[in-house]
Write a structure and sequence with these properties.
globular, 62 strands, five-stranded mixed β-sheet, Methylamine Dehydrogenase, Chain H, 11% helix, Herpes Virus-1, Quinoprotein_ADH-like_sf, mainly beta, four-stranded antiparallel β-sheet
Amino acid sequence: MEIMEEIEEPTLVQTLRAHRTEVTCADAMGALLVTGSGDRSLRLWRWAAGAGWDEAARAENAHRYGVTAARWAASGALLASGGVDGAARVWAARTLAPRRLLAAPGAAAVRALCWAARARLLSGHDDGVLCVWHVPRAQLLARLHAHEGALHAVAAPARGAMLLTACTHGVLKVFDLAEVCRSGITGAATPPALAWVDNVHDLGALCAAVTEDGALCATGGQDALVCLWHSRAEDGWPRGLLAGGVRARGHAAAVTALRWAGWGARALLASASLDRTARLWLPAGAELRCVRVVHAHSRYLTCVVLAHDMRYLLTGSNDRTLRMWSLGSLTLDDQLDTPCEALAHFGLGDLKGIGPVDDEVVEQPGDDTETAPDGDEEEATSMRRLWAGAVHAGTINYIATHGDLVATASSDGVARVFRWAAAARELQPLHALAAHHYPVMACDFAAAGSVLLTAGLDGRACVWDVESGVQLRSLSVPACAGAEGEAGGGGMRAARAAPRRPALLLLATDDGLAPLWSLDDDDPKPLHVFMDHSAAVTCCAWSCDARLAATGSAAGELCLHAPPPSARLLHHDPHAHDLEGVQSCDFAPSPSALALPENTYLLATAGADSLIKMWSIHYDEELASATVRAVQTLELHGGGATSLRWGGALLAAAGADRVLRVWRVAARGAAARLLAVLAGDGGALAVALLADRAGPLLLCGSLGGELAAWRVPAELRDDEDDEDGTPPCYWQREGVRRWLRECITHVPGSELQPDEETFLIQRAEEANMTGSKLLSVSMNTLLEHFGYAAVDSDAGADSEAAEDARPARMRDELAWLRAPPPSYDQERAAPHALLCPLSHRVMHEPVFAADGYTYERANILDWFLAADGAVSPVSGRRLLSACLQLNYGVRAQLRDYLSS
C-alpha cells in the first residue's frame, strides 16, 4: 500500500514513432532504451532532459528476419536480442556494436530471452527448445527440449538458481538451472523437471517475469490471466520449488508481456494485453490486485517495461508506436541518470591493486546519433575484418592458401589468385584463370606454391603456373578409366595436391571416382583411380606427410587410402555422416601443434547432418593398416557444414546457416573450444586460414562472390573462467578454489600458512565441494569437511582463540554467500560509495580494476566484453591489465551497512 501512495494515475509523457512495423519488444536501463521490431531493426534511445527519448544508435539488419525479444544484462553494459532467424545476438549497450552471435544449428525462432547470472543467456524457441549460452565464448552450454509447444515464457527465479519455462500448450516446468547448464547439447543427460504443472494457462502461456530477488514469478497466457508464483527460501537462498499459481483476472484478451519492478514488500507488476490496455498489479499476500489500468494504444500491446524505480511505464504496440507513461511526477525535464561523481568510486577501502593505464583513449559514445554496423563491419567476437572485396560474379566455392598466396574457385567459371600484402592489409590480385566452362568447385596449391590446381563441373582439372598465370596441363578422367568399364568424365567436386615432391594430384568426381595424377608425369591417364565409393565423391584431403589420402562421398562414406606404390584402401566407414553425406574434410597440418603421437593423424570431416567430426587415425605402414576412431563431434552448423579447413591448432568451418565458426583444438583433438562466431551475411560457404606474422587470418567467401579477411587475435578467450562473477550455485571445483583463496586464505591479516591453504583446497577436492553445497549444506557440516573440528578443551586459551578465528572467518564468509539481497529500502538508501558506477546498484562482490575504481565483479567483466577489451568505464583509457582484485575494505563496509 505504501507503493500506491507514490504511484499516481499514469499520464502520457511521450510517444515515439519507433519503427516501420509493429514494436515487438522493448527494454530500458537507466537513461537508455532499446526497441525491436518486425522490420528487423534494433534502435537505441538515450534520454535527454527537456527532449525525452532521442535516437542514439540503430542496427537496421539486427536479424535476418523480425526481432522478437530484447533484454538488458543486469550490468547495463550488454544487450541481448532474439529474432525469427533463430539466433540471439549480444550488443554493446551504449553503441549497439555487435559483440556475439549465438546461433544454434537448425534453431527455430526465438520467442523469449532471459539473462541468468553473469555471462549466461537463456533463449526459448518455437520448437520448445531452450538454449543456454555462455556469452563471452559464444558457446552453447546446453540445449534442453523442454516442451512440445512453442517456448514463449522463460524466467530464472530463485536468484537464478532455478529455471521456469512455460509453453503454448499450457505446461509449466521448473528445473535446476545449474544442472541444465551442465547437461550439454546432446540431450543425453537431460535433467528431470523439479516441478511439472499442466493447464497453467488455457490455450497456452505467452510470457513470464521474475522479481530481482527471485522470490516472485508471474506468467501470462492466452486465457487473459496472470498467475503468481512464489519461490520458497532455504537458508536465506531461495531454491525451493515454486508454490502458488494464484490466478488474477482483469484483462479481456491474451496477456502478451509482463515486467516486475522492485522486490520483497515493494514489488509491482506490469502487464500488457491484446485488449489494448496495460495494467499494474500489486502482490497482496498470495494474491495479485489490479491497482491501475492504462488504455494505452489504439491497437493491441506487444510489450511493456516498468522502470526499476517505478517512475514510468513504457508500452509498445502493433500501431508502430512506443509510449511513455509517468507514474508520478516525472516530466520531460527530469533526469533519468543517477548523478555520479567519479571520485566517489576511486580507491575505496585501500589502493591495493591499482595498476597502470595506457595513453590510448578508446572512443566513448556521445550524444550524437550513431549507426551500428549491420553485422559485416566488425563482428565483435574479438575479431577484426581487415579487408573485403567483390572478386567474383558467382559463388565462391573454395579457398586455398599457401604462404601469402590465396586462390579462390567460383561458380562464375573463374579461379583467381591473390597475394596478401601485410603492410597494406589487403589482398592484391595477381591472375584471373578462366579455362573452365562450368563452375570451378575447387583449387589447391602444389609444388611449394608455384603451381595451382583447379577443378570444375566441366569434368576437367587444370594445372597453372602461379607466377605467369599460364595453363600447364589439362586433366580429365577418360571413359572406361577404371576397371570393369567404370565411366569417367563426370564433374569434379574437389581437388587436393599432396604436400611433397613429386606432388600427387587427387580429384573427386561425380562418378564416384577419385583419380590420382603425378605432377611430374606427363601421361594424360591417371596414375591410379580409387573406386571405393558408392556415390559421388564430394571431398578429398592429404595428410601432412602425404602418407594418407581421405575421400568422402555424398552417401556419407569416409575412405582412407594409401597412395601409390601400394595404392590400397585402408579404411571404409559407410556411415561417417548421414543425410547428404560428407561435404568437406581436412587433415590437421601440424602434428606438433596438437601433440599427436608418432604415426597418428587428426582428420576433421563436415557433413550435411550439421555435424563436424574429428577422427584420430593411427597408421601402421608395415602392416598397411589404419586404426580410426572418432574423438569428438561438434553439432553447430544448422543446414549442414559446407566447408572446413585447419590452420595449426585452429579449425574453421562455414555452414548453410550463414555462420562461420573458429575453434581452438586441444592436444590430440580431445577437446575443441569455440573461440569465434561470425555472421556470414552474404551466405559464406568457403573458409580458409592464412598464416600471417601478426596472427592468423580467417578468409571467407560468400554466395555473392565477396571475399573477406578477418584477423584472428593471437590470444582468444581460451582461458576465461566460466564461473568468474557468477552466483555460487554455478560454481564447480574451480569456483570453490577461487573462493577459498580470495575470501579465506588471502584476506588481509590472514595468518594461514601455504600448507594450510593447500590442506583446505585438498579437503574441498575430496568432498567434491561445489557452490550448491556451500549454499545448502549446514555450516557445521561444512566446517567439518574443511577440517575444523571441535576445540580441544585441554588446549590453552591462546591456542583456543587462534583456532577459533579460522572457522569464524569461514562461517562469516558462508553467511555472506547465503545472505539475502538488500531490501528495496536498503537499495535506495545505500551510500553512493557502495554502488557500482556502472549499474548504480548496491554491490555484492566489489573488485578493484587497474584504473583504481571499484566495480561489481560481474559488471566490469560485462563491460570489458562490451568494450572489446580492458577499457576503463570512467576514463575511457585502455588498461594494461584486466586483472581484478577483491576490495576487502568495501566488502566490510557493505556488511556493516546491510546489518545495521
